[in-house]
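Case study 2.
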Amino acid sequence: MPPDVAYVRFRRRSGWVAPRDVLSCPSFVAVDFETANSLGGVSACQLALVKVDRGRVVDRAATLIKPPAGFDEFEFTYLHGISARDVRNSPMWPDVAGFASRFVNGLPVYAHNASFDAKVWEDLDSFFGTQTAPNRFFCSYRTARKLVPGLDNYKLPTVTNALVPGYRLNHHEAESDAEACALIVAALQSLI
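Prediction:
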Protein backbone atom coordinates (compact mmCIF):
# COMPACT_ATOMS: atom_id res chain seq x y z
CA MET A 1 0.00 0.00 0.00
CA PRO A 2 1.43 3.45 -0.90
CA PRO A 3 2.47 5.52 2.15
CA ASP A 4 -0.10 8.27 1.43
CA VAL A 5 -2.95 5.75 1.43
CA ALA A 6 -1.70 4.23 4.68
CA TYR A 7 -1.53 7.70 6.24
CA VAL A 8 -5.09 8.61 5.18
CA ARG A 9 -6.35 5.35 6.72
CA PHE A 10 -4.37 6.07 9.89
CA ARG A 11 -5.75 9.63 10.01
CA ARG A 12 -9.34 8.40 9.81
CA ARG A 13 -8.75 5.90 12.63
CA SER A 14 -6.70 8.24 14.82
CA GLY A 15 -8.88 11.32 14.62
CA TRP A 16 -5.80 13.46 13.83
CA VAL A 17 -3.92 12.56 17.05
CA ALA A 18 -0.16 12.58 16.53
CA PRO A 19 1.33 9.18 17.39
CA ARG A 20 4.32 9.14 19.75
CA ASP A 21 6.90 8.67 16.96
CA VAL A 22 5.60 11.74 15.13
CA LEU A 23 5.15 13.85 18.26
CA SER A 24 8.74 13.11 19.21
CA CYS A 25 10.10 14.55 15.92
CA PRO A 26 12.34 17.47 16.92
CA SER A 27 11.27 19.58 13.93
CA PHE A 28 7.74 20.35 12.79
CA VAL A 29 5.58 23.11 11.33
CA ALA A 30 2.41 24.67 12.72
CA VAL A 31 -0.09 26.24 10.33
CA ASP A 32 -3.15 28.42 10.56
CA PHE A 33 -5.51 29.61 7.84
CA GLU A 34 -8.19 32.26 8.09
CA THR A 35 -11.04 32.20 5.57
CA ALA A 36 -13.16 35.02 4.20
CA ASN A 37 -16.45 33.16 4.38
CA SER A 38 -18.27 29.86 4.84
CA LEU A 39 -17.90 28.79 1.19
CA GLY A 40 -14.90 26.65 2.10
CA GLY A 41 -11.17 26.62 1.93
CA VAL A 42 -10.96 28.36 -1.42
CA SER A 43 -11.91 31.55 0.44
CA ALA A 44 -8.61 31.44 2.43
CA CYS A 45 -7.47 35.00 3.07
CA GLN A 46 -4.50 34.50 5.42
CA LEU A 47 -1.86 31.82 5.98
CA ALA A 48 0.73 31.60 8.73
CA LEU A 49 3.46 28.97 9.14
CA VAL A 50 5.74 28.54 12.15
CA LYS A 51 8.69 26.13 12.15
CA VAL A 52 9.99 24.64 15.40
CA ASP A 53 13.23 22.78 16.03
CA ARG A 54 14.00 21.24 19.41
CA GLY A 55 11.30 23.25 21.16
CA ARG A 56 12.27 26.65 19.73
CA VAL A 57 10.64 28.68 16.98
CA VAL A 58 13.29 28.91 14.25
CA ASP A 59 11.32 30.35 11.32
CA ARG A 60 7.97 31.89 10.51
CA ALA A 61 6.10 33.14 7.49
CA ALA A 62 2.72 34.76 6.98
CA THR A 63 0.82 36.30 4.13
CA LEU A 64 -2.58 37.56 3.22
CA ILE A 65 -4.16 35.67 0.33
CA LYS A 66 -6.58 37.05 -2.24
CA PRO A 67 -9.49 34.64 -2.73
CA PRO A 68 -10.66 34.09 -6.32
CA ALA A 69 -13.83 35.69 -7.71
CA GLY A 70 -16.91 33.95 -6.36
CA PHE A 71 -15.16 33.14 -3.06
CA ASP A 72 -14.25 36.72 -2.15
CA GLU A 73 -17.24 37.80 -0.02
CA PHE A 74 -15.82 38.74 3.40
CA GLU A 75 -18.38 37.61 5.96
CA PHE A 76 -15.80 36.78 8.68
CA THR A 77 -14.14 40.22 8.87
CA TYR A 78 -15.77 40.65 12.30
CA LEU A 79 -13.79 37.62 13.50
CA HIS A 80 -10.29 38.14 12.08
CA GLY A 81 -10.37 41.76 10.95
CA ILE A 82 -9.38 41.01 7.34
CA SER A 83 -11.43 42.68 4.60
CA ALA A 84 -11.52 42.60 0.80
CA ARG A 85 -9.63 45.89 0.82
CA ASP A 86 -6.80 44.32 2.85
CA VAL A 87 -6.21 41.54 0.31
CA ARG A 88 -6.76 43.60 -2.86
CA ASN A 89 -3.04 43.48 -3.80
CA SER A 90 -2.20 40.19 -2.09
CA PRO A 91 -1.02 37.05 -3.90
CA MET A 92 -3.46 34.30 -4.81
CA TRP A 93 -2.89 30.69 -3.72
CA PRO A 94 -0.86 29.62 -6.80
CA ASP A 95 1.66 32.35 -5.93
CA VAL A 96 1.88 31.14 -2.31
CA ALA A 97 1.54 27.36 -2.65
CA GLY A 98 5.11 26.58 -3.72
CA PHE A 99 6.61 28.63 -0.92
CA ALA A 100 4.30 26.98 1.65
CA SER A 101 5.29 23.54 0.41
CA ARG A 102 9.01 24.36 0.56
CA PHE A 103 8.58 25.80 4.06
CA VAL A 104 7.01 22.53 5.26
CA ASN A 105 9.60 20.46 3.34
CA GLY A 106 8.14 17.11 4.43
CA LEU A 107 8.01 17.88 8.16
CA PRO A 108 4.99 16.91 10.25
CA VAL A 109 2.39 19.69 10.23
CA TYR A 110 0.06 20.60 13.09
CA ALA A 111 -2.93 22.88 13.37
CA HIS A 112 -5.33 23.48 16.21
CA ASN A 113 -8.45 21.87 14.75
CA ALA A 114 -6.50 20.31 11.91
CA SER A 115 -9.60 19.01 10.15
CA PHE A 116 -10.37 22.65 9.25
CA ASP A 117 -6.89 23.74 8.18
CA ALA A 118 -6.14 20.53 6.27
CA LYS A 119 -9.41 20.91 4.37
CA VAL A 120 -8.62 24.53 3.54
CA TRP A 121 -5.24 23.46 2.11
CA GLU A 122 -6.80 20.56 0.20
CA ASP A 123 -9.61 22.80 -1.15
CA LEU A 124 -7.06 25.35 -2.37
CA ASP A 125 -4.96 22.67 -4.06
CA SER A 126 -8.04 21.13 -5.69
CA PHE A 127 -9.43 24.44 -6.94
CA PHE A 128 -6.13 25.77 -8.31
CA GLY A 129 -4.64 22.46 -9.49
CA THR A 130 -1.66 22.62 -7.15
CA GLN A 131 -0.38 19.64 -5.16
CA THR A 132 1.13 21.06 -2.00
CA ALA A 133 -0.97 19.81 0.94
CA PRO A 134 1.23 18.10 3.53
CA ASN A 135 1.01 14.31 3.78
CA ARG A 136 1.49 14.29 7.58
CA PHE A 137 -1.08 16.61 9.16
CA PHE A 138 -1.98 16.38 12.87
CA CYS A 139 -4.13 18.21 15.38
CA SER A 140 -2.83 19.94 18.50
CA TYR A 141 -6.43 20.10 19.81
CA ARG A 142 -6.98 16.34 19.63
CA THR A 143 -3.45 15.48 20.72
CA ALA A 144 -3.77 17.76 23.76
CA ARG A 145 -7.14 16.22 24.59
CA LYS A 146 -5.47 12.80 24.67
CA LEU A 147 -2.35 13.82 26.62
CA VAL A 148 -3.76 16.50 28.94
CA PRO A 149 -7.07 15.26 30.31
CA GLY A 150 -9.28 17.42 32.48
CA LEU A 151 -9.22 20.84 30.82
CA ASP A 152 -12.57 22.67 30.71
CA ASN A 153 -12.36 22.52 26.90
CA TYR A 154 -9.64 22.22 24.28
CA LYS A 155 -10.15 25.47 22.39
CA LEU A 156 -6.96 27.27 21.45
CA PRO A 157 -7.12 29.90 24.23
CA THR A 158 -7.75 27.25 26.90
CA VAL A 159 -4.97 24.90 25.80
CA THR A 160 -2.57 27.82 25.32
CA ASN A 161 -3.26 29.07 28.86
CA ALA A 162 -2.76 25.57 30.28
CA LEU A 163 0.41 24.60 28.41
CA VAL A 164 2.02 27.92 27.49
CA PRO A 165 1.21 30.23 30.40
CA GLY A 166 2.12 33.81 29.68
CA TYR A 167 1.73 33.57 25.89
CA ARG A 168 -0.40 36.49 24.72
CA LEU A 169 -2.71 34.96 22.12
CA ASN A 170 -4.35 37.24 19.57
CA HIS A 171 -6.98 34.66 18.62
CA HIS A 172 -8.05 34.48 14.95
CA GLU A 173 -4.92 36.28 13.81
CA ALA A 174 -3.17 33.55 11.82
CA GLU A 175 0.40 34.34 12.96
CA SER A 176 -0.58 34.28 16.62
CA ASP A 177 -2.72 31.15 16.26
CA ALA A 178 0.03 29.28 14.39
CA GLU A 179 2.63 30.27 16.99
CA ALA A 180 0.34 29.20 19.84
CA CYS A 181 -0.20 25.85 18.11
CA ALA A 182 3.57 25.43 17.69
CA LEU A 183 4.21 26.19 21.35
CA ILE A 184 1.45 23.80 22.42
CA VAL A 185 3.00 20.98 20.38
CA ALA A 186 6.43 21.76 21.86
CA ALA A 187 4.87 21.57 25.34
CA LEU A 188 3.15 18.28 24.46
CA GLN A 189 6.51 16.87 23.36
CA SER A 190 7.81 17.36 26.88
CA LEU A 191 4.98 15.18 28.22
CA ILE A 192 5.89 12.04 26.28
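The beta strands are 27-35, 44-53, 56-64, 109-111, 137-139.
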